[in-house]
Automatic annotation (TrEMBL):
Pfam families: PilN. Residues 47-84 form a coiled coil. Residues 187-208 are annotated as: Disordered. Residues 189-208 have a biased composition (Low complexity). One of its GO terms (biological process) is type IV pilus assembly. InterPro entries: Extracell_DNA_Util/SecSys_Comp (IPR052534), PilN (IPR007813). The chain crosses the membrane at residues 20-43. This is Fimbrial protein. Keywords: Coiled coil, Membrane, Transmembrane, Transmembrane helix. Signal peptide: none annotated.
């Protein structure tokens, strides 16, 4: 019987398989490393691209913020100019308000009513006077309330009985009164007149 020793061949085959496994393992490691490197490079490219976009957006936002500040400054300057223009217009209009006040008082004072004093503070006018009777004072209030666009919110503050000398031995009983009202600006009068005209026109259109 012939005996063959196979141990060296088995050892060689085992060694070859081990070397092949190690080679395939090393190759897999290299392939994985290459793939990881490619992925890392691709992610870095994406990050760099996004950072570039972010920087571009930041620059554009800074430019827009500067333009917005310039626009806001221009708007403030325009508002200031409009305010100054309006103040000048109001000042010019207010110069004629005492004239309108005197004209309206002459028109609206009933017979038997006399003004002794009046004082204007801004648009509020305080007026004192005497009347032949309480009815004359009531008539004055009605006239100031309904007959003139230059005066609004007339209010009787005080009315008392008093005696007035009309001769050496002649005294008459009168009503001493104090009232206040608001003197309207020309722009307010024009606006109120326009609204009243529009309302009148609408009422006329509704009539058959």
């Amino acid at each position: 019987m012939i005996l063959i020793n196979l141990l060296p061949h088995r050892e060689v085959a085992r060694k070859r398989r081990r070397e092949a496994f190690q080679a395939s393992l090393f190759a897999s490691f290299l392939v994985g490393l290459i793939i990881a490197g490619v992925i890392y490079w691709w992610l870095q490219m994406l990050i760099a691209d996004q950072q570039g976009r972010n920087q571009f957006l930041s620059r554009e936002i800074a430019v827009l913020e500067g333009q917005i500040k310039e626009i806001a400054t221009i708007e403030e300057e325009i508002s200031a100019l409009i305010s100054r223009q309006k103040a000048v217009e109001n000042l010019q209009a207010d110069r004629n308000m005492p004239v309108h006040l005197l004209n309206e008082l002459v028109r609206q004072l009933p017979d038997g009513v006399y003004v002794s004093n009046f004082k204007q503070s801004n648009n509020t006018v305080m007026m004192q006077g005497v009347a032949q009777s309480n009815e004359r004072v009531s008539e004055l209030l009605r006239n100031l309330s309904n007959n003139t666009p230059w005066i609004s919110k007339p209010e009787l503050l005080e009315i008392t009985a008093a005696n007035v000398s009309v001769g050496p031995k002649d005294q008459r009983r009168v009503a001493s009164f104090k009232m206040q009202f608001t003197l309207m600006r020309p722009s307010e009068v024009a606006k109120a007149s326009g609204a009243s005209s529009a309302k009148t026109g609408v009422s006329g259109e509704k009539q058959p």
